[in-house]
Amino acid sequence: MALIDLVVEKIVKIPLESQDKPDILRELVRILKDAGEIDDFDAVLQGVQDREDKQSTGLEQGIAVPHCKSAAVSSLKLAIGIAPQGIDFDSMDGQPTNLFFLLIASPGLSGPHVEALAEIAKLSRSKAVCKALVHAESAQEVVELLKGS
Predict the structure, then answer these.
(1) Average pLDDT value for the chain
(2) Which pLDDT belongs to residue 108?
């Protein structure tokens, strides 16, 4: 399954309300819970926090890809959050992060997990798409931008 197939309005939140890294992680996992994509909120959140404690998933140019493998899911799960104001997420370039792509995969799913990370990396190279996402005003607009890119 391509990452783009996972992009639907119910897994997109714009704008994110949180102002710091721990709350952003919680809010992203909450998106999946509220969308009916996960049952065990605590297990997924713990997995994401444990992964983040090892090394920040804040990349460069305003993008973060918090992720983990968790037995709490049987297939790849995606949540997208946008913080137009930017959040300090311990990114590699030290700049605020605006675009958050949360990926959760089951422990036996290395292929889709790696493919999804590669698709996000490719997307992040398009400054025009990233800028449009940061300025999007609705989940529907985010979905349309991602499906059109």
Answers:
(1) 91
(2) 80
The pLDDT score that the predictor gives to residue 121 is 78
| Number of domains within the chain | 1
- Amino acid making up residue 96: P
Count the neighbouring beta carbons within 10 Å of the beta carbon of residue 66.
25
The neighbour count for residue 145, using CB atoms within 10 Å, is: 18
Give 31-58 pLDDT, tens digit per residue. Answer: 999 999 999 999 999 999 999 999 999 9
Q: pTM for the whole thing?
A: 0.93
Q: Cα angle at 99 between 93 and 102, to 5 degrees?
A: 105
Q: What is the CATH number of the domain that holds 25?
A: 3.40.930.10
Residues 83 and 24: their CA atoms lie apart, in Å, by 9
How far is it, in rounded angstroms, from Cα 130 to Cα 62? Answer: 8
User: From CA 122, how far away is CA 146, in angstroms rounded?
Assistant: 12
Q: Which domain holds residue 115?
A: 3-148
